[in-house]
Amino acid sequence: MDMECFIFFLKLKCLKQALRTWNQDVFGNIFEKVSKAEEEVRLKELQLEVTDSDKARVQWSQAQATLLKHLTDEETFWKQKA
């Protein structure tokens, strides 16, 4: 019985490490991603004000979409913590 518990413990330990690695690879630091996306939106807004081209408008829209995705991920994180 003790050996079975030990083996189970080792399997849980391996699972914990695998889940941490997966989490880091898939999600990374969501707060850092939100900050970078906000900065990217600010930069694209400035470019849009200067050039006011279709290309700048598309880049700004893409930056906005990325920011919304990261904000949704952050909101999901906080809901899971609650």
Low-confidence stretches: none
Tally of DSSP helical segments: 3
First-to-last CA distance:
37 Å
Query: What global shape is seen?
Result: rod-shaped
Specify the structural class: mainly alpha
Q: How do the SSEs run, as a string of H and E?
A: HHH
List keywords for this structure.
single chain, 91% helix, rod-shaped, 82 residues, 3 helices
Walk me through this protein's architecture.
By secondary structure, this protein is mainly alpha-helical. Helix content is 91%, strand content 0%. The protein has helices at residues 2-26, 30-51, 54-81. The chain is rod-shaped, with a radius of gyration of 21 Å.
Give me the secondary-structure topology.
Blueprint: H1 2-26, H2 30-51, H3 54-81
Helix pairs in contact: 2-3
Summarize the structure.
This protein is an all-alpha fold and 82 residues long.
